[in-house]
Amino acid sequence: MNVDPPLLVTVVIPAYNAAKTLANTLRSVSNQTHGHLEILVVDDGSQDGTYELANEYRLQDPRIRVLRQENGGVARARNLAIREAAGSYIAPIDADDLWHPCKIELQLRALASLPDGHGVAYNWYAAIDVNDVIFAHSKPVLYKGDVFEIMVRENFIGNGSTPLMPRSDVLACGGYDPSLRDQNAEGCEDHKLYLALAERLRFVPVPDFLTGYRFVQGNMSSNAYRMLKSHALVMADVKKRYPHLAAAATIAEYDTARWYFRKALSSKDHGQIKKLAPMIVRRFSLRLVIHGVRLIWRSAKSRARRLANRLPGRMTGKPPAPPIAEAMAVFAFPKNGTSFRDSFEAAADQTGVFIKPHVGGA
C-alpha cells in the first residue's frame, strides 16, 4: 500500500535584534507534533547576537536553516525565506511569539476538511506579556470559506504568527509588501497579504488559542500612528479596486483607530493619545457624530429596559443564547495570569494529547 509522505511545512521566522526571545520561539516551533518541518530563520541585520544564537540553536535541531540580509524590514525578511522555502505550506511566526505544540498538526487537519484540501488555516491567539503571561485573548470567530469582505471589515486573524498558507499562492500574490515600510507605514503587511489570499482561496478556522502573540511597549504593533497609516494605505487599495466596499473599508479604518485610541488610553500612553486624538477628529468627524448619537440611543434604550423590568407582570428568565454563544461555550478560554506554556502543558498532562515529536519525523 502506498502511503503519502507527510506534508513539508516551512516555518518562516524574521528576526531583528531578537536575541532575548528567539530561543523560546524556536523551542515552540521545534516542539510541534507535526515534525516534518523546514525552519528558516532570517536575521534582518541584527546587531545583538541574533545570528549567532540562531546558528547555535541549529546544532540542536538540524531542520533549522539560518539566512541573513541587510536590515530591510519584516516583509523583505519573510519574502526571502518564502523564496528559499521547500515546503508546500508557509507558517510564519515572529521571533518573539509562541505556538501551541499542536498548532501545525491541527491546521493541517483543518485544511484536509476543505473540498480540495487547499486554502488558508488560522486559529485564535492569546495575548502574552514579556514574561509569556496571558493577559487577554482574541475574539473567537469561526469565519470560513469566502472571507474577503469580512477581512476588509476586520483582520480577524489579528497577527502575522498564525496562518498556514500555501506557498504557491503566497508567491502568486507577490508575498508581503515591502513598500509599506518604504513609506514609513510598516505594520499591515500581513493584513494586505491575507486580503490577497482571500480573493483566491477558502479560509478555515481551528477553534482554539494556539498562538501566543506578544504585546510589548515599543514593538511594531504598539506604534499606533504608523499602524494606522499602514492600515489606511491597505484600505485605499481596497477602495480603488472594489468601490462597492469603500464604505466598509472606511468603517474598518474608524474602528481600527478607535481600538488603538482605547489601547493608548488604557495604557496611559500620552504620546500616542496626543498623536491619535487630532488625527481621529480630522479624519472621522462624521463617524464620531454618528457614534455619539448611537451611544445616546443605546443609553436611552437601556434606561427604558430597566424601567420596564420594574413593572408588574414583566417576563422573567434570560433570552435564549444565540447559536454562536452556544458554540463558544464548549471551548476552553485562556486564563489571564497564567503562562501560555503552562496552559497547554497542564492540559497535556490531563489528556495525554501532546507528545513531543521526534525531530525530523512526522
TrEMBL record:
InterPro entries: Glyco_trans_2-like, Glycosyltransf_2, Nucleotide-diphossugar_trans. Residues 10-140 form the Glycosyltransferase 2-like domain. Gene3D superfamilies: Spore Coat Polysaccharide Biosynthesis Protein SpsA, Chain A. This is Glycosyltransferase family 2 protein. It comes from Rhizobium mesosinicum.
